[in-house]
Amino acid sequence: xxxxxxxxxxxxxxxxxxxxxxxxxxxxxxxxxxxxxxxxxxxxxxxxxxxxxxxxxxxxxxxxxxxxxxxxxxxxxxxxxxxxxxxxxxxxxxxxxxxxxxxxxxxxxxxxxxxxxxxxxxxxxxxxxxxxxxxxxxxxxxxxxxxxxxxxxx
Length: 154
Description:
- This protein is α/β, with parallel strands linked by helices.
- The chain is 40% helix and 12% strand.
- The longest helix is centred in the N-terminal third of the chain and has 13 residues, at 25-37.
- 23% of the residues are buried.
């Protein structure tokens, strides 16, 4: 009976739509991870416009070093698309090997741009993840993805 009540309460929660434009990657993802673990479905749009703080040259050098790990035919495989980078960042913040983390991670959807079905809906803004308060260097996830090898046409 207790399992049935938990399933019903998690099914009643609505989807939270987050516009990633101008939000800091890590802070936004930590809020998303918490929402997912609370049973909400989270949809992130404009993944390529999410902001990474730090010097571009340093971050790209770190990424290139990380991307060298593994064998091209066996893996591990590292994605270069902004939407997949956001998913992997959130995955690092949920216990995705445990059942509750797996179900939480399955409730996350990330899109490049804004799909037509979400254009007219109200979107969530995370004030604490706003990149306008950054004083140091920063750049978008789309720029980062292109520098590490994202082919936008594919």
